[in-house]
Amino acid sequence: MKRIWRATVVAVAAMAMAACTNTTTSGSGTADEDIKIGTLLDVTSWDPAQADIGFDGPYLSALYDPLISLDKDSKPVPGLAKEWKYSADFLTLTMDLRTGVEFSDGQAFDADAAVQNLEHLKAGVRSGSTYDNVTDIKKVDADTIALHLKKKDDALLYYMGIGRSWMASPAAIKADTLANQPVGSGPYTYEKGKSTPGSDYVFAKKSGHWDDKTYPFSTVHIQPIADPTASFNAMLSGQLDIAYANAADIPRAKDNGWNVASDVATWVGLQYTDRTGKQLKPLGDVRVRRAISHAFDGAAMLKSVGQNAGVATNQVFPAGRPVYDETLNSRYAFDLDKAKKLMAEAGYPDGFKVTMPMSSIFQPWQPSVQQTLGKIGIKVTWKNLSPADYQKNAATFPMFVAVLALDSNPAASVDGRITSQQWFNPNPSTDDFPKVKELVGKIEAATGDAQVPLIQQLNKEITEQAWQDVWYQANNTYFSVKGITVTPITGMMFPTLRFVQRG
Amino acid sequence: MIRFTIRRLLSGLVLLLVVTSATFFLAHLAIGDPTAGLLGNNATPVQRAALHEKLGLDRPIITQYWDWFSHAIRGDFGTSWRNFQPVSDQIALRVPVTLSVVLAATLLAAVLGLVVGVATGLRPGGLLARVLKVASVVLFALPGFWVSLVLVMTFAVRLKWFPAVGYVPFGQSPSAWLSSITLPSVALALAAIVMIAEQLSNGFLEVNKQDFVRTLKARGLSSRRVTLHVLRNASPAALTVLAVMFVGLLGGAIVVEIIFNLPGIGSLTQSASQIGDIPILLGLTAVTVVFVVLINFLLDLVLGWINPKVREI
């Protein structure tokens, strides 16, 4: 009996020793061919039709090739579609496809596969909205397809490039097995045996991929880590080469000699759903909306709540991009006296009452909102909702606190923020705002670069109309060890693998 | 003993039924329409309606409940609303992670709690007893996440003996598995060790005062045999604490799973709650209740074995 005990103790000690020495201690991505990426969320689904754009990018980009990619300036660039062309009326988009590409199950990528994939994406609950304007997808010949549209869609190529044109094996789509067994033609294959779902997904590089040079790492680990402290500790211990980061850790990251990459990702402020005063009369008066804009000190909010990671602005077009207009930022300089004066001019010197939704996600801003609106007499009653219910119900209130994703493409910004129906924008009609309506019409009639000056005018007009009360645009931040760089892409909450490079 | 066993099992089944049913209705009431959380920002009302139909949410709540219940009793908990994968598959992936950590923590707590408890029980005024008193105050005052972070900073970041985050399945590499669960298990076990040791130590003091101990000593039994008798009489309270701790650790694992980024049932509960994935929440509730029932059942059996009077209760 004693012998058994002794043997057990020795075995456990040996295992413990082995466990201690097995810990990864390398931290430099340049030293080996592996790369370990820490992102915020687990993959939503391996089926591109059920996946999210936001945080699913790195996972899906390992396994699938897109028809269209984006470059670092968010310009559509060739993927499996080598080139594309719109018809003169912009109602037919013809794509010339790459030949000689195979999915990992041996199926060929061709026009039939592309049509089947696009139909699958159009029918998908999460991917479908990208293809709302597409009425028909047809094979023209073995390596050409045509998308027929019911109306001109300036954002289509951008949305396809940002994560809505991943091509999967036609056999897997037909068998409805993609969610469990992803089969793509992408640069890596999924190493199911070496992966731990929910903790560490391992991908091995394929040989002879058509875009081989874009993917320098032989093995990619993607680890979803929801807690920023855990993520930072994983970087410190050498378990990660890249981390989706908390801006508060930037000084410590710099002390460690890591690369820090940031770019704006969301706008933070008050979204109005009632600009005509149907639900809450005062909001129909532009002077009231302007008063609210003057009352909030965006820069102070960015500093106190946003950890100073972002840009204080009152625009919904991303900072640093062509439509963004620096001069507009002074339009609603923080000025309480002016705000009170505007409220009085509008006939509300004593303010008014408003009920707004609240959930745990938005609580960091709640005290500031309550206090600031209170200073101009607007008394807020909060209705608490669960985070899951917030998105569904927030827009039933006349205004609510919002953190909404930005798009780097100007046409997509107009579509996503102003003209299309979204959960935060249930009534996209511009009928009561003739100048906005006129500009939207002009933008829709124009094409390409000619749209930019018109969208700049629209940006100016909606700022004048205090279309929403933007306090600031918040950054997404990524840390990477020396020798590895990440290029943030506004529109992707975590960039796809083509934006993770040596350097 | 058979009647006792059947009675305990039946009450366990009733508990399982009541808790899962209550969770079903409460979750539907609290979460409301989950399509917003599930479809994300860009979904249209048409897509929401389509998802409602796909998930069967357009049916009366009683029909939905009967559908869920009739499948659940056959072991089919439906599919996740987030990724449309079978709930049982996802829980099956997560349970080993949480169980690894919780069982290791329980084992650590039981072994070290027993050693420290007996040692301090034998020498009530000794150094170890005083250390235990201080440790119990300190460990209860410190938040669990702080203790976990200190462990990470010391043994993962500074010394690099263990990984800071992640889990490796036993089948993939036993040594890496042990390495990945060591720090989380220690973090969970620390307070439990002290609690069990205190319970056992107090039990020792109480039992030591009783007449039968004096009689045993008077009959000339060796101190080792007397200690074993005392231990057997002092252990029920510590065993109850251990069982309660196990159940508590299952719940408490969520903090440790987040700090160590372990894909266990705690972190799954958190993510399912955030997006309103009711089938996952129901599956997790059922699994947790089964564990609670099972542990209590085992505890009753052990206590019944130690003390036959318990069986009559």
Shape of chain B, please? globular
Distance between the termini of chain A: 60 Å
Q: Structural class per helix/strand content of chain B?
A: mainly alpha
Oligomeric state of the chains present here: heterodimer
- List low-pLDDT spans of chain B: none
Helix fraction bin of chain B: over 70%
Strand content of chain B: under 5%
Helices of chain B, by number, come to 12
Strand content of chain A: 15-25%
| Counted beta strands of chain A | 21
Radius of gyration of chain A using CA atoms only: 25 Å
Note the main sheet of chain A. Answer: 9 strands, mixed
The chain pair with the largest interface is: A-B, 58 and 61 residues
Count of runs of 4 or more consecutive helical residues of chain A: 15
Q: How would you sum up the global shape of chain A?
A: globular
Mean pLDDT of chain B: 83
The number of strands of chain B is: 0
The CA-CA distance between the termini of chain B, in Å, is 12 Å
Considering DSSP H and I runs of 4 or more, what fraction of the residues of chain A is helical? 25-40%
Commentary on this structure:
The complex is a heterodimer of chains A (503) and B (313). Chain A is α+β, with helices and mostly antiparallel strands. Helix content of chain A is 30%, strand content 23%. In chain A, the strands form 6 sheets. In chain A, strands 1, 10, 11, 12, 13, 14, 15, 18 and 19 form a 9-stranded mixed sheet that branches. In chain A, α14 (434-445) runs antiparallel to α15 (451-464). The longest helix of chain A has 20 residues, at 2-21. Chain A is globular and about 70 Å long. Chain B has 313 residues and is mainly alpha-helical. In chain B, 78% of the residues lie in helices and 0% in strands. Chain B is built from 12 helices and no strands. Chain B has helices at residues 2-31, 35-39, 45-55, 61-72, 87-122, 127-141, 144-158, 174-208, 211-218, 223-259, 265-275, 278-306. In chain B, α5 (87-122) runs parallel beside α12 and α11 packs antiparallel against α12 (278-306). The longest helix of chain B has 37 residues, at 223-259. Chain B is globular. Chain B starts with a helix and ends in a 7-residue tail after the last helix. The mean pLDDT of chain B is 83. At the A-B interface, α1, α6 and α12 of A face α2, α3, α7, α8 and α11 of B.
